[in-house]
Amino acid sequence: MIRSELIQKIADENPHLFQRDVERIVNTIFDEITEAMSRGDRVELRGFGAFSVKQREARTGRNPRTGESVDVEEKHVPFFKTGKLLRDRLNGK
Questions:
Q1: Global pTM?
Q2: Distance CA 33, CA 28 (A)
Q3: pLDDT tens profile 46-56
Q4: Domain residues for 25?
Q5: How many Cβ atoms sit within 10 Å of the Cβ of residue 7?
Q6: Is 3:22 a contact under the CB 8 Å cutoff?
Q7: Interior angle at CA 21, CA 51 and CA 45, nearest 5
Q8: Within this chain, do residues 48 and 37 fall inside the same structural domain, yes or no?
Q9: Which residues contact 76 (CB under 8 A, 6 or more apart)?
Q10: Confidence of residue 93 (pLDDT cuts 50, 70, 90)
Q11: Considering its fold, how many domains does the chain have in total?
Q12: Among residues of the chain, what percentage have pLDDT more than 70?
C-alpha cells in the first residue's frame, strides 16, 4: 500500500472528512514520526510496532564490481520492530 492508497482508504471509510483533510492528517503523522526519528527518539504505536534509529559503525567494505576496499562512514539507519498484535495477526493467531 502506498501513501495515496492509504489516504483514499481512510477517506472512503470516513465520508464525513474531506480528502484534503485526511491527506493533511496522514502527512502530519508521517512528518512527526520522521521528526522524532531525526532527533533520535523512538516512536511506538501500540499493537503495531516501534520505529527507532540504529547506528552503524564505520567499517571497511568492498566494491562488488571491482573488489577494491572502500571506507564506509558511520551512519544512522531506521529500524522497525513489529508489535505483538501485528505479529500475531500476520501469523494467523
A1: 0.77
A2: 9
A3: 999 999 999 99
A4: 1-41
A5: 18
A6: no
A7: 20
A8: no
A9: 40, 53, 54, 55, 56
A10: confident
A11: 2
A12: 100
